[in-house]
Amino acid sequence: MSWIGVAAGSLAVFLASTVAFDVVHAVLHGMMRSRVRLLQAVGGLHGVHHRFLDRELRIHEEWRRANLLCHVIPEYLTQLGFGALLLLALPARFVVPAVALETAVFLAILRVRGSDLNHRPRARVPAYRPHLFCLPEYHALHHVQPDAYLSSWVRVLDALLRTGAVLGGRRVLLVGSATPAGRALARALAGAGARVEPAPAEVASLRQLAGPGGPHASDVLLLTGCPAAKAAALLEAFVEGAGSGWLAPEVAVVDAGGCGALYRRYLRDPRLVYRHLLWVEGEPPERQAWRAVDLWRRGFHLLAGSPAAWLRHPRLRPRGGSRPSVGPHEPEPGDRREAPDGVGHEYEEGGGGAELEPQHAAAGLQWEDHEELDRRRREAHEQRAGHGAEPQGQREEQPEQPPEDQPRVEPGRGQLGMDGHPERVAHAGAPGGHHGQAVDEAPEGTRRIGEAQPAQRHPHATAARRKR
Ligand SMILES: [Zn+2]
Ligand SMILES: [Zn+2]
Question: What is the residue range of 346's domain?
Answer without folding.
Answer: 171-375
